[in-house]
Amino acid sequence: MPQKKVTILDYANHFGLVRIHGDMIAMSREITEISVNRPGLELAGFFDYPRSHRLVFLGNKEITYIQTMSEDAMRTSFDFLTSDTCPGIVICQGRDCPKILLEIAKKKNFPLLATSRATNMFNLETVMYLQEALAPMQSIHAALLEIYSMGVLILGDSGIGKSETALELVKKGHRLISDDRVDISYVQGRLYGEAPELLIGMMEVRGIGIIDISRMFGINSLMNRIDIHYAIQLVKPDLAKPIERLGTTKNYFELFNQKIPLLKIPVFAGRSIAEIIETAVTYLKLKDYGYDSSYEFEVRMKELLARKKGDKK
To answer: Is-catalytic flag, 21?
Structure first.
């Protein structure tokens, strides 16, 4: 599973922060935690509960308190906050950087940044950014499309026809996110899929080669990213095993301890897999809305059997 990395420079560039101090070596420090530290306890001289791996924010409250501190207390607190494990300090709301903090940062080559944003709102923006930027990610061999506004993974062994099926679905008006490989991230309890940078808009069709989907079918045939709702697995038919007839078996695709509904579709010659996938997505959407045709069929069958038993009496 690839490990995502976010440096303090990535963070500063994303939000357009002003760099007060820190060369390129300092700005290469990595942010590893999503939460932000507003160091009330540390400024008060309490160091037994360190949050040294978090970004530090200094807002109006912190700067106002700093102005009441003695020089020795400032040096002790700032020396503790500018540890090797802290990625950087952000001074918010356009406040001036304390001189002693700047002095210590220059001595340690420690990153100091500034913004005019309100501290509380910028805290929220930072957490939302880091949740995405540091989200666990895994690449899988699959295709991902938007079908009827739902993110649908198409799984299956190599050569079973995932790309050809995806191409047929694009021709029918659905949108491609990725072919062959999908990068899946886990953000706030949901799975999101996107294409690796090299594969964006590209599809491999056996016998033709690599085709550019946006050039062939228009830019509206592509989508950058989508929340994954369902998974469809294309399987080779096994005549020794019974084929699902009623749809009562429940299967799931699981990743990062998240489960999404999975349907297994046997691939037979002459069968329109694209149309069956459209039907499958509609079927799963109906189940999400509370209508289960398999359950309704079972109820109807039980009612019919009960009625026939009643007629015999």
So the answer is: no
